[in-house]
Design the sequence.
């Protein structure tokens, strides 16, 4: 059974940093692209960042480019999102998602999300 | 970048009725890379349709997807009580992999 469990969310001050983790199980982690998607309170889904199975390819939304870094440790079956220079508008539930085997679909499986609140 | 627009913003229907949701892209999207997701309050999104028209595992056949190029449609043939939710389209062909703004299907 595929499981994705996010952690690392919490309250952080503007300008601060946070690292999110997504622990994966139930599939061969290294062969699947992964993504982070966020949802601000009462708003729609926003794709944040994606990474290829090997980690060689990374992609970012303009809203986080230069501030967030996506990475993965295939030996630990874990996806990460390092978030720096955080702003109030980064407040959201952050979901990790597993892509399809053919790479054509972003979110075949999703975690339950972790809440990040940026506030002083 | 490809921008997705969904209409209507809200669809008010009764159980048993047919729902037709539209997703329009600012430029052509490969059908292979167009998906629809359902999200209920407090829950993670769930994949409904991938490749524009293929149902994901476990999705009832009252859900169907169609379209190509810049115009895509999600149809729910007969609404069940559990179908009242927000629906998002999303393209995964060209980064950034934007979602549409969503269509809320609520009970009339």
Sequence:
């Amino acid at each position: 059974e595929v499981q994705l469990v996010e952690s690392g969310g919490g309250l952080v001050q503007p300008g601060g940093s946070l690292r999110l983790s997504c622990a994966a199980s139930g599939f061969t982690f290294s062969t699947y692209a992964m993504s982070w998607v966020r949802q601000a309170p009462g708003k729609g889904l926003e794709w944040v960042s994606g990474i290829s199975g090997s980690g060689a390819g990374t992609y970012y939304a303009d809203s986080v480019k230069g501030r967030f870094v996506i990475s993965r440790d295939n030996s630990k079956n874990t996806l990460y999102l390092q978030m720096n220079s955080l702003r109030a508008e980064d407040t959201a539930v952050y979901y990790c998602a597993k892509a399809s085997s053919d790479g054509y679909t972003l979110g075949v499986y999703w975690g339950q999300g972790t809440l990040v609140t940026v506030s002083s | 970048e490809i921008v997705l627009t969904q209409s209507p913003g809200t669809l008010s229907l009764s159980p048993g009725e047919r729902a037709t949701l539209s997703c329009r892209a600012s430029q052509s999207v490969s059908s292979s890379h167009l998906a629809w997701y359902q999200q209920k309050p407090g829950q993670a999104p769930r994949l409904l349709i991938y490749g524009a028209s293929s149902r994901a595992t476990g999705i009832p056949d009252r859900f169907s997807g169609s379209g190509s190029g810049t115009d895509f449609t999600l149809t729910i043939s007969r609404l069940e009580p559990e179908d009242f939710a927000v629906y998002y389209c999303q393209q995964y062909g060209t980064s950034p992999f934007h979602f549409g703004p969503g269509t809320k299907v609520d009970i009339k």
Summary: Chain A has a mean pLDDT of 96. The first strand of chain A starts at residue 3 and ends at 7.
